[in-house]
């Protein structure tokens, strides 16, 4: 039995509640913060009212995302007050990209905040919390010189196991691309790639704890170029080949990729590695060359289409997903039609689309030719109707096919489990909860609004009823 198990949940067992906004990298970071605090005796709770420390891990990507933080802080103020009336303290921390972008300003607008900590400094979190507990208002947003990944601990096996059979693993952080709409290069800093051995060790630890699928994360994951054990610089294709050698690791994914960084080695990995799932999130943002140029994406629509062809000839069953922005400054009706045409050509399995949101400090926000809100809304509606149709068509095309399904977690109804198809769609199947973590062969029988339904194939039916 470990030390923490022996400890009775007495007075000195503090509780932390972490609420996560934004992208998968924040999901990963929230777990890392919880792991760092676990060493100081903090246990995670899913009840904010029980928290001695409440952390918001925030996103700054669009205005609405950032404003959510302040409305949440309003609610937390009441929670904190209710706890104070019972003589219990609650420390409030803001982490993530809003913390990095706004720093001290957060405490000015929301004085209940005790601690502001940016994504590059999470390894300093335990010390920062200790200082805040001493009464200091802490703002920790300076980029630390040490690499935080050298200092952030990996969770205990039982904690990893409790998080499920799929896991995220950040291999790259930050961005040097400076798309003119985007805050990420300012909030996450410049690109940093973790070395191969560090990544392999973390992956191995996850697999030993029962993880079967790992998604490698990075703001620009395919720009990853880390130091290999042979002192050479490796690319993502080579890293995926190395990770595919880990016994017990059955599935690999990665996200998010930039079209400029899809090299031959990575496309070759899609051709050769059975463990690498045939799904690729490859945002293009817009289909007009003028808009792509103004966005500083540094490729044309045609470059993107040719790239998609190369990827599809290497891995014909690959499903593509994308991100789109409508109403970037200067986008004309004709530009927007180009985006629709590109979507028609590519045929996406899934996509995320947004109205352009001017972000402070980015070149796009300075432009005078902003697109009117109602025009953005109309364009978004048309774009989403097309993408929805493509998503439904893709789901329908899956009906009748046989796939391997990694069983991840219980479904809504008893006797059901949920897994993901190779193309990342949720799949619901009748199976026994003891099978979580297994990969079974199923046939897709039906496509619902957001998920697929499947039946286990004969060989697996036996194991369901055992
Ligand atoms: N690194 C990824 C994207 C990260 S941000 C890439 O290069 O593709 C996730 C998505 O949010 C982007 O792909 C973009 O579609 C959207 N986004 C970013 N900034 C935005 C803004 N200012 N307004 C609207 N959408 C934005
Ligand atoms: Fe933002 Fe562009 Fe970097 Fe993606 S590549 S994170 S959109 S600046
Ligand atoms: Fe948001 Fe930061 Fe991720 S701005 S999308 S949480 S990198």
From TrEMBL:
Sites binding [4Fe-4S] cluster 1 sit at 23, 59, 97
Give me the comment on cofactor binding.
Binds 2 [4Fe-4S] clusters. One cluster is coordinated with 3 cysteines and an exchangeable S-adenosyl-L-methionine.
The record places domain MTTase N-terminal at 14-134
Where the record annotates domain TRAM, the positions are 396-458
Its domain of life reads: Bacteria
| Catalytic activity from the UniProt record | 2-thio-N(6)-dimethylallyladenosine(37) in tRNA + S-adenosyl-L-methionine = 2-methylsulfanyl-N(6)-dimethylallyladenosine(37) in tRNA + S-adenosyl-L-homocysteine + H(+); N(6)-dimethylallyladenosine(37) in tRNA + (sulfur carrier)-SH + AH2 + S-adenosyl-L-methionine = 2-thio-N(6)-dimethylallyladenosine(37) in tRNA + (sulfur carrier)-H + 5'-deoxyadenosine + L-methionine + A + H(+); N(6)-dimethylallyladenosine(37) in tRNA + (sulfur carrier)-SH + AH2 + 2 S-adenosyl-L-methionine = 2-methylsulfanyl-N(6)-dimethylallyladenosine(37) in tRNA + (sulfur carrier)-H + 5'-deoxyadenosine + L-methionine + A + S-adenosyl-L-homocysteine + 2 H(+)
Question: Carries keyword tRNA processing?
Answer: yes
GO CC annotations on file: cytosol
What's a Gene Ontology MF term here?
metal ion binding
Every copy of the Radical SAM core domain together lies at: 161-393
Give the matching SUPFAM superfamilies: Radical SAM enzymes
Gene3D superfamilies noted in UniProt: Methylthiotransferase, N-terminal domain, tm_1862 like domain
Which annotated residues bind [4Fe-4S] cluster 2?
175, 179, 182
Checking CDD domains in the record gives:
Radical_SAM (cd01335)
What this protein needs as a cofactor is:
[4Fe-4S] cluster
Signal peptide (from-to): none
The subcellular location is: Cytoplasm
Q: What is its EC number?
A: 2.8.4.3
InterPro entries documented for this protein: Elp3/MiaA/NifB-like_rSAM, Methylthiotransferase, Methylthiotransferase_CS, Methylthiotransferase_N, Methylthiotransferase_N_sf, MiaB_methiolase, rSAM, rSAM_horseshoe
Alphabetized, the UniProt keywords read:
4Fe-4S, Cytoplasm, Iron, Iron-sulfur, Metal-binding, S-adenosyl-L-methionine, Transferase, tRNA processing
Assembly and interaction partners: Monomer.
Q: Give the family, as the similarity comment puts it.
A: Belongs to the methylthiotransferase family. MiaB subfamily.
Q: What does this protein do?
A: Catalyzes the methylthiolation of N6-(dimethylallyl)adenosine (i(6)A), leading to the formation of 2-methylthio-N6-(dimethylallyl)adenosine (ms(2)i(6)A) at position 37 in tRNAs that read codons beginning with uridine.
User: How is this protein named in the record?
Assistant: tRNA-2-methylthio-N(6)-dimethylallyladenosine synthase
Native organism taxonomy: Bacteria, Pseudomonadati, Pseudomonadota, Alphaproteobacteria, Hyphomicrobiales
Its gene name is: miaB
């Amino acid at each position: 039995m470990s030390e923490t198990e022996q400890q009775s949940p007495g007075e000195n067992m503090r509780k932390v509640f972490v609420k996560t906004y934004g992208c998968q990298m924040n999901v990963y970071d929230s777990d890392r913060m919880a792991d760092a605090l676990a060493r100081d005796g903090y246990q995670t709770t899913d009840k904010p009212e029980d928290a001695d420390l409440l952390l918001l891990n925030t996103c700054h990507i669009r205005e609405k995302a950032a404003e959510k933080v302040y409305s949440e802080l309003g609610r937390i103020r009441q929670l904190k007050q209710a706890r104070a009336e019972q003589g219990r303290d609650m420390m409030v921390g803001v982490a993530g990209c809003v913390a990095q972008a706004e720093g001290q300003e957060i405490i000015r607008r929301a004085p209940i905040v005790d601690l502001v900590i940016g994504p590059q400094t999470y390894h300093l979190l335990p010390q920062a919390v200790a200082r805040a507990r001493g009464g200091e208002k802490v703002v920790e947003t300076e980029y630390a010189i040490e690499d935080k990944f050298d200092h952030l601990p990996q969770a205990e096996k039982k904690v990893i196991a409790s998080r499920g059979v799929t896991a995220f693993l950040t291999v790259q952080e930050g961005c040097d691309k400076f798309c003119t709409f985007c805050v990420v290069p300012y909030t996450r800093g410049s690109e940093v790639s973790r070395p191969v051995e560090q990544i392999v060790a973390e992956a191995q630890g996850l697999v030993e704890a029962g993880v079967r699928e790992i998604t490698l994360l990075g703001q620009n994951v395919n720009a990853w170029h880390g130091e290999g054990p042979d002192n050479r610089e490796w690319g993502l294709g080579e890293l995926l080949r190395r990770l595919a050698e880990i016994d017990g690791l059955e599935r690999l994914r990665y996200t998010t990729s930039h079209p400029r960084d899809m090299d031959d080695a990575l496309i070759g990995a899609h051709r050769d590695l059975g463990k690498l799932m045939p799904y690729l999130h490859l945002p293009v943002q817009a289909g007009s060359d003028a808009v792509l140029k103004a966005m500083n994406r540094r490729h044309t629509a045609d470059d993107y289409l040719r790239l998609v062809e190369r990827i599809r000839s290497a891995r014909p069953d690959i499903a593509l997903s994308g991100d789109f922005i409508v109403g970037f400054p200067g986008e004309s009706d004709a530009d927007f039609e180009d985006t629709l045409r590109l979507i028609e050509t590519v045929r996406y399995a899934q996509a995320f689309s947004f109205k352009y949101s001017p972000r402070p400090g980015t070149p796009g926000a300075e432009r005078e030719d902003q697109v009117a809100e109602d025009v953005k809304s109309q364009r978004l509606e048309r774009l989403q109707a097309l993408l929805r149709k493509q998503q439904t068509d893709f789901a329908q095309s899956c009906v009748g096919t046989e796939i391997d399904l990694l069983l991840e977690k219980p479904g809504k109804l008893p006797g059901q489990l949920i897994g993901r198809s190779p193309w990342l769609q949720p799949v619901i199947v009748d199976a026994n909860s003891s099978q979580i973590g297994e990969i079974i062969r199923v046939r897709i029988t039906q496509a619902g609004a957001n998920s697929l339904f499947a039946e286990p194939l004969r060989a697996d039916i036996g194991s369901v009823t055992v």
